[in-house]
Each structure stands twice: as C-alpha cells, then as structure tokens.
Amino acid sequence: MKMLLIISDGIGDVPCKDFGYKTPLEHGNYPALAKLAKEGITGMMDPLAPNFPAGSDTAHIAILGEDPFETYNGRGFLEALGTGLRPRAADIGFRVNFGTVENGVVVDRRAGRSPLGLATLATDICSEIVLDVPFQFREASGTRAALVLSGDNLSANVSDGDPHALGAAPHEICPLDDTPEAKFTAEQLNKFIEQARELLSDHPVNRDRQAKDLLPANFLLVRGAGQAPDVATFQERYGVSCACIASTALIQGVSLAFGFDLIDVEGATGETNTDEVAKANATVEALRDYDFVFTHFKATDTASHDGDPKKKVAMIQKLDNMVSHIMAGIDKKDVVIALTGDHTTPCDIGDHTGEPVPVIVWGKNVRADNVTSFGERSCAQGGLGRINGQDLVPILLNQTRRIKKYGA
Amino acid sequence: MKMLLIISDGIGDVPCKDFGYKTPLEHGNYPALAKLAKEGITGMMDPLAPNFPAGSDTAHIAILGEDPFETYNGRGFLEALGTGLRPRAADIGFRVNFGTVENGVVVDRRAGRSPLGLATLATDICSEIVLDVPFQFREASGTRAALVLSGDNLSANVSDGDPHALGAAPHEICPLDDTPEAKFTAEQLNKFIEQARELLSDHPVNRDRQAKDLLPANFLLVRGAGQAPDVATFQERYGVSCACIASTALIQGVSLAFGFDLIDVEGATGETNTDEVAKANATVEALRDYDFVFTHFKATDTASHDGDPKKKVAMIQKLDNMVSHIMAGIDKKDVVIALTGDHTTPCDIGDHTGEPVPVIVWGKNVRADNVTSFGERSCAQGGLGRINGQDLVPILLNQTRRIKKYGA
User: Fold this and answer.
1) Binary contact (B401, A15; C-beta < 8 A)
2) Among partner residues A250, A349, A385, which is closest to B385 by beta-carbon distance?
3) pLDDT digits over B312-357, tens only?
4) Chain A contacts of B386, Cβ < 8 Å?
5) Contact B406 A23 (CB under 8 A)
6) Measured between CB atoms, which of A68, A354, A386 is closest to B407?
7) pLDDT tens for each residue of A216-258
8) What is the ipTM of this complex?
C-alpha cells in the first residue's frame, strides 16, 4: 500500500467576520475535501505544540516526523538545497535577495521584482568573487538567490545583512557569539557582499536594466544563516522510497533533507495561478513509483498572507479540484492519504499563528468518524482527537502496516 | 490585548448520587459560566498528566507554564513566600503549625484553632531563638506559620516533625540522605523546635490562653521542607507584566515565584465567605495595569474537602457571580480569558483526584464550539480537545499574538 501526504500551506484560519464568523474552510463548498472527511477519520493537529506558531520549515520537519526543537538549524540551508545548490552537511546556507541600494540605503529589497539578467549576474558572481573558502551562489525564483559557504570552520551564528526595512543601510554581518568560527564566517560574508557590490555597481546587466527603466540589482541582501537539519532520511528511518511534488524552494529543501526525490511539474508555480490538475496527475503518477508521495499546495498560504479570505476560498477550491483529480486517478484500495495544513495563517492577521490545523486520514481500514466536512470546528469533533505533527507519518506507516510492533 | 486566567480551586468533580449522578457543575445553574462556554472554545485539561492527581502547588506551577516534575522543590518555600517571608533562592522554607502537646504527645495539631496571641509568640520566637544560621519566622492565617532557614549549606531533604496524628509524640527531624547538608539542617531544626518548646511552655500568652479556656500553643509542628521552584518569571519568559489576586498563602507563594505582583482585596478571605464582587472589581482594575491577571477562587475546593456538594454548588454560584461582574466590567474586545480548575476534588472523596478539569478559552478570535455549559462532560465535547496544564498560558499568549513563531 502507498502513502500520500497532502499539505495545504497555511490552510487553518479563525472565524472571519466577512463570512458570518465562519472560516474560509467552513464558508466554501469543497466536495472532494468533504468526501474525504466523510469517508475518513478526522482530528486536529498541533504542528509543533499546542498553540505554538510554526514556521513552514519547522512545521514540515515535524510533520515529516522529526522534532524541530532538536533538529532545526535555520532556514538558509534548506532554501539553498531547494534552490538547487548542493551543500555538504557542515556548510552554511543563506537566503539572499537581489536588492537596490542608492546613496547607501535600501530603496527596494527586491530590485523592483524583475528577474531580468539575474542569471548572468549569478554566473559572474560565481566566477569573479574570491573568498578564503569555497562558495556556491545561485539565482532562484523572482529576485531571490541562495548562497552556500563551505568549510569546517564556519558557524551559522551570524547576523543578517538585510536590514528588513526600506530607507535603512544594509547591515554589516556580525558574529553572534565569541567563537572564531562565527567571526570568520562574518568576515567572509562581509567580503562577499563588498565584492558583489563592486561587481554589480557598474555591471552591463544593470546598465541594461536601467535603460529599460528597471531598478538595478546592485546589492545582495543576505539573511537566515542555517546549517543542515539533523534529520534522518525516510529511507534510513522507515525504509520507504519517497518523492515530493512542491514548487517552493523551502519545501523542496526540507524534502531533500529527508531524502525525497523532487518531481518537477510543468505549470506548478507555487503561486495562485498554479496548475492543480497537472499536480494531481503527477501525484497519481508518482504513487506508481514510490511508497510515499508528498504533494505540497502553497497558494492557500499566499492568499492568507495577502489577507484575502475570498482568494483563500478560491485557492481551497483549487486544492479541492486537485484532490478530486487525485481521487479519480488512484486505486482506492491501495492508497492511504493524510490531508492537512502546516500551520494556521488567519487572513485577518496575515501571519502564522498557533491554533491547530484540521487533518483527515483516509484509507480502507481507518475508523471513519461522523465528521462530514474538512473544517477547523468539524474536525475538532473527529475520531483522531488532537494529535501532534510528529504523529502523522507514523499514522500512515501504521495504516499501511509498516511499523513493527514494539515488544512481543 | 490582555490575558485573564481564572482558576477555581478543586472545581472538578465526579457524578454525585445526591444530584442524580450529575456533578456540582452539571447540577447547578450558572449563567455567566454558561455564557462564557457558549461564546468560547472548551475542552478538558490534565493539570499534570492524564489522571495523575495534582497538588495545588504542582498544578499551579504547570498551569503557569513550567513542568512541575522538573521544577517543584516542595511546598514549604512557597508557603513561606506567600506568608510574607522573603527567602533567597538557596534557603529552605517550612510549613509550621502552632500545636498543643501534653505529656509528650500531640493533643491538638492546631492549638484549638485559636490565633489569640500567636503574633506575639512569633515576635518572641524571632528575637529569642538562636541558631547557627539566620532564620525568619512568621505567623500566618489561623494557627499556621512559616519558617525559613538561610544559608548555603542547607538541604530540604529532611523529615517532618509533625507526626500528622493525635496521640503521637512529635517526631525528631531526621536527615533523609547522607549529605552533611541534610544532617546540619535537621540539627538546626531540632534546635529550633526545642528552643521554641522551652520559650512557649510558660509564656505569658499561653497562660492567658489557658485562663480563657483555650489550648496553649506550646509546640511548633514543622513539615513540608522546600526549596525555591526552578521556574522563570513571566517577565523573563514572556516579557509580560502580571498580577495575582488570591487569598491563599500557597497560591500567593507560587505566584510570587513566577514574578506576579500580589493585589490585596478587602473582603477576599480564601474562605466560603469571600467577597466575590470585590475580587471581580479588583480583577477588572488590574486588567487596566497588567498584561496578565490571574484570579484565584479557593472556596470551591474548601467545600469539596468538606465533602459537601450543596456547599460546592453554592460556591460555584459565587464564582459565577464573580465572573458575571468581571464580564460586565471589562472591554470584551481587549481581553482573552481562560477559566478552569487546578484539579478535581470529588466531594465524596474529599481529596484531590486525577480526572481532568473542564476549561474554557474565551476571546474574540477563538474558534467557538457547540458547547453551551461549563461541565466535566459538556467540555469533553469541546473544540480544544484534551490539553495539558502547561498548554494553557501558551494558548493565551497565542490568542493575544504574543508568541513568536519558531522557524520561518
């Protein structure tokens, strides 16, 4: 039997005044999700701990079965992995934005959001910058990029260069402890940023951007230093093959850290225009080849961060359509499905909060309960009760009879 | 937004034959509690762990967010704090009763419950007893008192002097381990008790008591050695200001250990005659000045220990009246409330048991459930599910958006 984990990012919400104090999940009509809830067993899940707001990275680490409070070492490494860089375990990864600095202050943290020429800039950065340690640098979606510093004498305990505000000067990177490693890492980063500044200031790509009335990408805003999470792969831990369908670098990075193969889907964008039917088809396909498939759906979180509950309902309808196509394609006797979110992102707050998320476990052997819809309050009446994020993969492993009994 | 925690001591109960197998919470009519349940989200809470009976001290430590199995170091220190003594972290606190000993055996563990002259005795004890370490001693409510021994070479691992039985001789204090600290502490305590015995035996206060047909307070029954709990203050841990409204020395002591300011309320007695409206008014007032207010209601536990379910119903009605006055006084948009008990105290047992207690979380953003009354069985159907005592403060912090997310 195969296992399918579907995570809809930030799907949880709180009562919304515009919807008569229903949540987006409670307000809309989602026939495929309702059918899954009706036929499955439901409950509420605390990704990290009761009422503890989770990042997407820490929540996914927990839902994939490891304790993030023990294993999480920052976001940069995971972003670098997802961007396509291949850091070794001891390396340090960083998130980077191409930004625009004028007269010493940040005027745009994303260089007007235009990616024009950034691949060329990244290539030149890789060939021309010289540090005392090897590094990798690569452009990512939009104006994002990732950086990896390699070596055994580095530390992730350094501050951000990104001031996270307009009109402020970029920060010098500082060590956050007294170790020689943190000091050395900060020095190397400051060197990197300064050499990049010189390289970018009069680069032909930026002359071309300015000729086209685009902001120059003349500064690298570095943040989120991180090391590899201390997690085991699914192969090592459970002996199963696994694949991930996700369009967000961070989620791809987390999945790579857990040993997942990444499956590329044309039309899957990680944005609200994503092709959910293509994702469904790829999911059905992947279930033929892998024991465990994880399909991530990002757009619900995007709508939540935008503070737009109507858009969130539209995105849940896309999710519903994706689930409908998956259910039409799979052999129902042979698949166990878990469907949930990684955290609650209330539209009226626009950021992650700590309320639990609803969860469905569906499959031929589950103890189906009386819940008939996928919602924050309906699933609170469900047969699973209130579970922790780290419980979910073991539930799938148990439903597919892959966990050996402990004792005799 | 402000946070209000209301704990009704020992409010949980079990089905009661006299009430047609309803509990005191299920039997009575409590409109303010019912309204809170109807508008809020409810659940069941295990103060320590599922079905593990909690003391009031350990339960409050857990509900205030720390693990009592890791941090609790005995009751005496907390009682001493609540009595008004100011021990340093390394000091040892003890609970003390003024008792009556005749012919070498205890004839009354509370000297007939008359406090007449005990303040004078306490003053003389402080000025006349000489030990090898500094000490503090103070009378408390009724015939209770508290003792603190100061110094760095002391241990709380010593036995009780109180034999906890009538007709028995007071016990010599013994070290409970082989350390020099435990031995030294036991020696100092035995010295203290012996010098007090000599001082009290023919003290004018006791001659006066006997002339008035009261039992002499001629012996100090010492018990419950304790050290400071290993907890962080709310200021350190959460960065919030906090105040406590409680009339019980133990609860005041726990609150002081967590950095709460104590608010004195005239008419609040910690007994069944407490002025619940005065407590409500003080609570409303405190919410103007503090981020977090904790209001404790003791009388429900007193009725339970007395084994009197009708009195318990009357005390829950007082609690209901207190809540009604609080709700009339606060700005409902700006306060999140948690209402619960610290443990179950069934009237037909008269002591703490391990069943979970019902809990309500009320506030403008909660996912209100279908529960419409505050009871042990109604709240078991609630949307919070079954939570742990240590989850409760994080729930309030999350509802007031004070917890930073872990991860990104």
Assistant:
1) no
2) A385
3) 999 999 999 999 999 999 999 999 999 999 999 999 999 999 999 9
4) 385-386
5) no
6) A68
7) 999 999 999 999 999 999 999 999 999 999 999 999 999 999 9
8) 0.88
pTM: 0.92
Amino acid (one-letter) located at A387: I
Per-residue pLDDT reduced to its tens digit, A264-315 = 999 999 889 999 999 999 999 999 999 999 999 999 999 999 999 999 999 9
Distance between CA atoms of residues B61 and A6, nearest Å: 39
How many whole angstroms separate alpha carbon B302 and alpha carbon B271?
Answer: 7
Cβ of residue A55 closer than 8 Å to a chain B Cβ:
yes
For A317, the token pair is: 């309808």
H or E stretch at A61: helix A56-63
Which residues from B are below 8 Å from A44, CB to CB? 383, 385
Comparing CB atoms, the residue among A53, A59, A386 nearest residue B398 is A53
